[in-house]
Amino acid sequence: MTDAGAEKELNPWESQGALFDEAARRLQLNPGLAKVLREPSKEIILHIPVQMDSGELELFTGYRVQHSIARGPGKGGIRYTPDLTLDEVRALASWMTWKCAVVNIPFGGAKGGVVCDPKKLSKGELERITRRYTAELLDFLGPERDVPAPDVNTDEQVMAWIMDTYSMHVRHTTTAVVTGKPLDLGGSRGRQEATGRGCMVVCDEALKRFKMARDRTRVIIQGFGNVGRAAAQHLHAEMYRVIGIAEKDGGIYNANGLDIPALVDYRKENRTIVGFPASEPADPQELLLADCDILLPAALENQITTRNADRIKARIICEGANGPTTAAADEILEQRGVFVIPDILANAGGVTVSYFEWVQDRQGYFWTLTQVRERLERIMRSAFFDVMGYAEQHSVRPRIAAYMLAIDRVAFAVQLRGIYA
């Protein structure tokens, strides 16, 4: 593949666009409507001045993209990374549109972030960046407009700062402007575990399709952050055998299964999984290619590409991350008979419980953890059956089926509403 071809494959906006085009073609979507649904509604670029601890004035670039609000307010996380690009934010916003439609919750898609390295910033500098970013977006945020959430390198503290900044400007406390908040500020029980738990639910459904037993199912997980860790904990608790974990700084492997509760404690104490007892070291990239039943990428985009897709040995891939598989690699996996649970289905547990948090904030009444888990599982199982039904009806792979289902639902909403002129 040429350098230009490789660059195009790894561009998440190009990748999701190729999948959209295939799904729209199979749906025989009106070309004009396809144009409307393919492009973001709004793209906002901010240049954020921040007084640093040193006294120097620094300028940071921030983004917020609202892809669609046809089915409800925009919904999507905010990430702080040094290599963030507008194309990445565009792709993530569009994935949120399709993800919300797949699980049939009344949100559209949005995404945002700031180009920065939080590891090099103090807590005070992060707070000032967050508050200025929020203030610049005041006209576009709100419970009925656009509801941010945590993403890479942001957490419930960042959400608390956003909620407070917004509330100070509108002159009353507005908890529903963000999700992923601390429980004491209107957060929901079960929110932090939601994406990982949702992955476990759809893995269960995949096992039923292939008549596989949990206790004989070997799982390798890439990433041990919020999603990967929660997925590992829930899978381990349900008797799956988690045999490998891959992280940036190294991987670990045990063919008989890792002790996940002990690993969580070890990671908390040592800030790494490397050196965990009762495991052997493994190359993180090689772990993706190791023999297993389920591969669960829960890190960043573009982990499975045309460079390694033909060497994947997993029978099932459950995409805990957004966009871990490129569109070109997805076709290779289909040809090789790998069953892929696509990201817009597999990791939709997070936005589903974010929806629950938004509902609870707006009604001022909060649910028990049991209620949250029961409602999450019901929605995830229903979405899995809907996607598989589309796959069988249209004779397409699950990813294209998920896109077709989502596009169909959003297109129907746009047609019902009509085009305002």
Any idea what the shape is? globular
Classified by CATH, the class of the domain at 194-346 is Alpha Beta
Q: Number of helical runs?
A: 15
Number of strands: 12
Poorly predicted runs of 5 or more residues: none
Main sheet summary: 7 strands, mixed
Portion in strands: 15-25%
Succession of helices and strands: HHHEEEHEHEHHEHEEHEHEEHEHHHH
Q: Which value, in Å, is the CA radius of gyration?
A: 21 Å
Strand order of the largest sheet: 9-8-7-6-10-11-12
| CATH fold-level label of the domain at 194-346 | Rossmann fold
Second-tier CATH architecture of the domain at 194-346: 3-Layer(aba) Sandwich
CATH superfamily of the domain at 194-346: NAD(P)-binding Rossmann-like Domain
TL;DR of this structure?
By secondary structure, this protein is α/β, with parallel strands linked by helices. Helix content is 47%, strand content 17%. The longest helix has 26 residues, at 369-394.
List keywords for this structure.
single chain; 421 residues; alpha/beta; Rossmann fold; seven-stranded mixed β-sheet; five-stranded mixed β-sheet; 15 helices; 47% helix
Description:
By secondary structure, the chain is an alpha/beta fold. Among the domains are: 42-182, Rossmann fold (3-Layer(aba) Sandwich), CATH 3.40.50.10860; 194-346, 3-Layer(aba) Sandwich (Rossmann fold). The protein has helices at residues 3-10, 12-27, 31-38, 86-102, 123-136, 156-170, 194-210, 226-237, 260-270, 284-287, 327-335, 343-346, 349-363, 369-394, 398-417; strands at residues 42-51, 57-68, 74-81, 108-115, 146-150, 218-222, 241-247, 250-253, 280-282, 294-297, 316-318, 339-341. The strands form two sheets. Strands 9-8-7-6-10-11-12 form a seven-stranded mixed beta sheet, with helices on both faces. Strand 11 (316-318), helix 11 (327-335) and strand 12 (339-341) form a beta-alpha-beta unit. It starts with a helix and ends with a helix. The mean pLDDT is 96.
